[in-house]
Amino acid sequence: MSSNRRFLLLALALIAASSAVSAAHTATNPRSMIKLQTEGRSGPPATLADVAWLEGRWIGEMPEGPVEHVILGPRFGHLPGFVRAVNRQGVIFYEIWVLAEARGSLTVRVKHFSPELAGWEAQEAYIDRPLVDRDASNLFFDGATYSRTGPDSFTVYFLNRSGGEERETIVIPFRRIATDRPPTGND
């Protein structure tokens, strides 16, 4: 075997080992998937075309139970979505979600509602999570990362904060579901 071929095989083996170590680290330390906004730093260039793959119906699994996420197609600089999180007792919360183009980059704007549609945020308020970084498969918004894991799957890493204190990083894997019927809870 030529030395060039041996070098290539060794390089490929090291890349594979590095990827496996990185995946294991992410599984044991999901906080490593979170990036926070730095004051005065603008987000990387991005448009809705970069996230068009999100359009569709998704089912995910939160610690409390399943979460459904429906994301509509982009129009007028917005990619809107609706979330319903449930457990065995019923609906935990609803969320209206908009991925929007802003200042040459992207931001996620969110409002939460109780099962009775009482807003969690003040009437005029919303949570704004600007894009702070990106790479080939990850979109790092302030405190929330969307990691594309396949053509029909992604994982959200969400930093749960209260009063400025970090509480936990919630990991929610999503998979695309068929659009010809509503989810049954068994999807």
Structure, explained:
It is a single chain. This protein is mostly beta strands and 187 residues long. It has a single domain (34-176), classed as Lipocalin. Helix content is 14%, strand content 47%. The chain has one helix and ten strands. Strand 9 (153-162) and strand 10 (165-176) form a beta hairpin. The longest helix is centred in the N-terminal third of the chain and has 26 residues, at 3-28.
Secondary structure blueprint with pairings:
Elements lengths: L2 H26 L27 E7 L2 E7 L6 E10 L2 E13 L2 E9 L13 E8 L3 E4 L2 E7 L2 E10 L2 E12 L11
- The level-1 CATH class: Mainly Beta
Helix content: 10-25%
Q: In the CATH hierarchy, what is the superfamily? A: Calycin beta-barrel core domain
The backbone outline, from C-alpha atoms, is globular
Along the chain, the helix and strand elements come as HEEEEEEEEEE
Write down how many β-strands occur, each being a DSSP E stretch of 2 or more residues: 10
Quote the distance from N terminus to C terminus: 50 Å
**Cα-atom Rg, whole angstroms?**
19 Å
Q: Predict the CATH topology.
A: Lipocalin
| Second-tier CATH architecture | Beta Barrel
Low-confidence stretches: 6-25
Main-sheet strand order equals 1-2-3-4-5-6-7-8-9-10
> Can you summarize the main beta sheet?
10 strands, antiparallel, barrel
